[in-house]
Amino acid sequence: MITLNVNGTAHSVDADPATPLLYVLRDDLALSGAKFGCGLGQCGACTVMVGGVAAFSCLTPVSVVGVRPVRTVEGLGNADNPGVVQQAFIDEQAAQCGYCIAGMVMRAQALLDKTPNPSDAEIRRAMAPNLCRCGTHMRILRAVRRAADTLRGQATTLPVASR
Ligand code: FES
Ligand code: FES
Question: What DSSP string describes 63-100?
Fold first, then answer.
């Protein structure tokens, strides 16, 4: 048995140590926010936070997580009570098909937890590993800026790109 702390709750899962964290989250814990895209660390759809750092859960064997807390998009809020980053993505209408969004939100959360006032260049750099095949990158970047401004108690006045 492997013990995981996910979104503040301890879970024991009966999984092969080499099983990707993504599969355990989705198949054993019914946390389906993180998505399987490429399975190769090339798209970011599977991004969650492990020990406060954005991680490709498709490439993370469940056995290496250890005591580091795992945070998934389900841990940030829900449809009735979205977290700040989630609300910013809603406000900017950043989702088209939505497949990439949970990963985008988690990578943005990891950035803002460490860098509350990122420059536009820092936002672009931090978000670069995550791809959106629908091409809503500009809305996503604006959503991250909006979330950063909201978390610092400021109105959004500095869009990443012209609206
Ligand atoms: S599914 Fe993990 S990076 Fe694409
Ligand atoms: S909204 Fe469709 S992949 Fe990003």
Answer: GGTTTSPEE-GGGT--SSS--HHHHHHHHTT--SS-TT
- Measured from CB, residues less than 6 Å from any atom of ligand 1 are 36-39, 41-46, 56, 58
Pocket test for ligand 1, best of 23, 32, 56, 132 (most atoms within 8 A of CB): 56
pLDDT of residue 46: 98
* Residue 160 binned pLDDT confidence (cut-offs 50, 70, 90): low
Rounded-to-5 percentages of helix, strand, coil across the chain: 35, 15, 50
**pLDDT score for 158:** 56
Tell me the ligand closest to 43's alpha carbon.
Answer: 1
The ligand with the least distance to the CA atom of 139 is 2
Instruction: Count CA within 13 A, CB hemisphere, residue 67.
Output: 0
- Min mean pLDDT across 95-104, 127-136, 152-161 is at 152-161
The stretch 141-160 carries a mean pLDDT of 84
